[in-house]
Amino acid sequence: MTAHAPPSPAPPIGVLVELTHRCPLGCPYCSNPVSLERPAAELGTQTWTRIFTEAAALGALHVHLSGGEPTARRDIAEIVRGAAQAGLYTNLITSGVGLSEKRWSAIVEAGLDHAQLSFQGADQATNDRLAHYDSAWERKRAFAAMVTNAGLPLTINAVISRGNLHQVGAFIDLAVELGARRLEVAHTQYYGWALANRAALMPPRKEVEESIALVEGARTRLKGRLVIDMVIPDYYARYPKPCAGGWGRMAINVSPSGKALPCHAAESIPGLEFWNVRERSLAEIWRDNPAFQAFRGTDWMQEPCRSCERREIDWGGCRCQALALVGAAAATDPACHKSPHHARIAATAAAEAEADASAIRWRSYKDKVEA
Ligand code: SF4
Ligand code: FES
Fold first, then answer.
1. pLDDT tens digits for 253-265?
2. CA–CA dist 130, 121 (Å, integer)
3. Which pLDDT belongs to residue 368?
4. Which of 255, 301, 337, 338 could connect to 305 by a Cys-Cys bridge, CB 3.0–4.6 Å?
């Protein structure tokens, strides 16, 4: 098969909009950049509404309303309305700690289709410690009830690290108890804050393997009742994940200030210029921005990806992880066992899984806002 980059890319399936970087929680695995954008730089309601119309015209089917914490925006109901009126399937990704019944009703009335609620632990003490927020547990449970009472489908997102890996079974029970239709057991991916805290978050391989077996058993037991997705830690995988579904292939992220990105960590790659939705249409960015073309398709690949039979399955893995761990964004993701660096990162993971877990650096909005 001849390697090629498509001259005219197929449309993205979805758009993930980071409405704000503000967030009341302090999760140590936060995937937002370590330098956060200021509230004054955030796009206004009308601009977001225009972006949703452009996304639908481009061919996108759904929008994920994310952050930070998207409900920190006072205009969240209007933003949902704009997305729904554009014809997009709307998914709110939230910590669930900041919404009153009244604001939630306005969001539902505006046309929300689905809610995805994060839990940091499967009991109060673990949850509130990892969320770095007292009373998060009770608030999240109350929000889950608001979602199901409104008749909306609920997904529980459980981000797993060493501090809560022993609770995978309890997360499954929690999702059933709360009436969720889907549970994502998502092992931490090491970018941003999570990379800074890797030594404190990395779980031991044996316990990861036990959690995978536990999920497999629960999938069978709960078939037809609860769908369970699982993302395993990259460092223990044989093959990498097709990050973002392949660079510039499935999705567009838009930052709070309007920078269009092929993935949430793309700005960590030097030398790429990301166009802003304030100045260009989404269609123009998707088609013409050199940053979107940089790793689109397979032409950019080096060996071993270039001649690998999986190159159009995982698209070489994650560019941002290759840069962070190997120093070259075009290198094979070292999560892949074919990477010459794989053994080194697996050894790092094993060593860090034994490291002191007490030295956690909590995400802090105040300390890390861009000047
Ligand atoms: Fe994927 Fe590249 Fe590894 Fe092949 S060599 S499995 S394309 S990351
Ligand atoms: Fe950027 Fe994976 S996070 S390509």
1. 999 999 999 999 9
2. 7
3. 52
4. 301
